[in-house]
Amino acid sequence: MPVLEARALAKTYLSGGAQVRALDGVDLAVERGEFVAIMGPSGCGKSTLLNLLAGFDRPSAGEVWLAGRRIDGLSEAELARLRRRQIGFVFQFFNLLPALSVAENVELPLLLAGQRRQAARRAASRLLNDVGIAERQNAAPALLSGGQQQRVALARAMANSPDIVLADEPTGNLDSAAARGVMELLGEARQRGQTLLLVTHDARVAAAADRVIRLRDGRIVANGRLEPVRAVPNLLDVGGDE
Ligand SMILES: Nc1ncnc2c1ncn2[C@@H]1O[C@H](COP(=O)(O)OP(=O)(O)O)[C@@H](O)[C@H]1O
Ligand SMILES: [Mg+2]
After folding, report:
1. Claim: this prediction has a pTM higher than 0.85
2. CA distance 187 to 190
3. What is the dotted CATH code of the domain comprising 31-55+75-236?
4. Any residues with Cβ below 6 Å from ligand 1, and which?
């Protein structure tokens, strides 16, 4: 059974009176432990897909299944509960809460999942140590570099040991050293058996994936291991956007 599945998934936005078909019938099944990269030009629907899969947004049509359970019709509260237990989400621009310290940002999902404050604090400390930010625990996120903030965002996404990690261009704003660091952390998550679904423009990131899915105009235009995709030159025109 796939751990995450989209069936005929569609999303239409209303923008200034016009309809924007952001996602147009996407079928996708991700197996447990798989590392899938999603690529495609700016505006092709990558973030929309990730947001729908995580239940941050509702599809206009189609279905989302998480570990054999249909989730697109669940209430906000049920979705939040599922996310807390099963899905770690890394936002493109980190989305750390500016009023909280680095440590508090990582503690928050643990507290929301019902952990006691002491235990949450210890776990956050350990996570921040793992991502190499231990010495900045008490700082405000804004005082950290982009690479450091992305590491904190990753620690936060990993806090509840989610089965699935969804990340929207997790290396998009980072220099290559910081990007390597983030990829190492994601690689470790995969070693632990976590499922990874990453939106990326980075050919090196995609090269590490089991499978690359290429979107264009809200549809999947390629879906396979990197070698066959690479054999068709213009299917992997990475770096072509933003
Ligand atoms: N909240 C929204 N309201 C209106 N249009 C949106 C909204 N979010 C995304 N879109 C549009 O949907 C399309 C897909 O966007 P997005 O999923 O963000 O693409 P990508 O992440 O691949 O760059 C784009 O045309 C974008 O302008
Ligand atoms: Mg996007």
Report:
1. yes
2. 5
3. 3.40.50.300
4. 13, 15, 20, 22, 40, 42-48
